[in-house]
Amino acid sequence: MDNTEMKQIQWFPGHMAKTRRLIAANLKLVDAVVEIVDSRAPLSSRNPEMDSMTKGKPRLVLLNKSDLADDRATQMWINYFRNSGAEALAVDCKSGKGLKNVLPTVRTKVLKELMEKRAQQGMTGAAVRLMIVGIPNVGKSSLINRLAGTKRAKVEDRPGVTRTKQWVKLDNNTELLDMPGVLWPKFEDQDVAVRLAFTGAISDDILDIETLAMKLLSYLAGEYPASLRERYKLELTGEESSLELLENVGRKRGMMISGSEINTERAAITVLDEFRSGKLGRITLEMPPQREK
Ligand code: G4P
User: Fold this and answer.
1) Whether the CB of 92 sits within 6 Å of ligand 1
2) CA 81 to chain centre
3) 10 Å Cβ neighbour count for 177?
4) Using a 6 Å cutoff on CB, does residue 282 contact ligand 1?
5) For a surface tag, which of 46, 113, 118, 133 has the fewest beta carbons within 10 Å of its beta carbon?
6) Measured in angstroms, how far is the CA atom of residue 119 from the centroid of ligand 1?
7) Whole-angstrom Cα distance, residue 5 to residue 49?
8) pLDDT reported for residue 16
9) Nearest to residue 272, comparing CAs of 186, 225, 211, 229?
10) What predicted TM-score, i.e. pTM, was given to this entire model?
11) Is-contact 175 26, C-beta < 8 A?
12) In percent, how much of the chain has pLDDT > 90?
């Protein structure tokens, strides 16, 4: 995609610098960092500076929304993060699936060395402190509500909205630091922005809705053709342009304007809504980069 196609995304470098300072200042208060990402786009839904900001701290990556992602791809992503030095788990904060493994994994894997040291020193009762980080909409509030077992008010992830640092007690000896400040994804990378717009994590007005849906349909026709055949009864030849795919969806759904013209805007909204709500099946939008051997 070229620059002219993409509308300017609002970008707040000053807020990012503030968040970076907050994280740096608070890292010394915690034993490990829990980073939450979207399983459908695990790299695109990360802050690009996360690795360098949390360098040296034990890390657990939670691949959230795993209910919406392709299981095979999620397993590949778990291996990818493990190979990069972090522990990783798939979770689903909507149903709670996988969440019972989180705190045991922190103790037995992520903080294994610290726990062994504390055991030698007779300090096994000391609290474990974790910092939770993630870009907006990945499911931080849902995770905290699930782990803390109480419904906490959703705090807005918006620059300019005052938010203070909060410690949340998860069990008798685990405390979670919910960081204020907003961590942005790598907006300036247009492929990243498009994947996040597909998931609804960022506003879909970065592109006009039809262009966005056409890009999603092209990806699906290439990687998940069965889901398009099943949901929209498309007969795919592999030769269709993205506009033809969108028109075919509209035609199959009877979305017509004045008899013969297809309402591609309605078709686009439908495709995006159905993807976001999982009706197109479990789909992953990016695969782990191949490592050089
Ligand atoms: P945030 O604090 O990181 O900004 O994210 P938040 O927990 O508010 O979650 C953002 C949206 O993602 C919410 O949907 C939430 O329900 C949904 N969500 C979180 N975890 C999961 C998951 O594992 N699977 C699925 N399918 N959805 C998840 P929403 O539409 O904004 O709100 P609502 O539907 O909860 O009212």
Assistant:
1) yes
2) 14
3) 20
4) no
5) 113
6) 38
7) 27
8) 74
9) 211
10) 0.91
11) no
12) 72
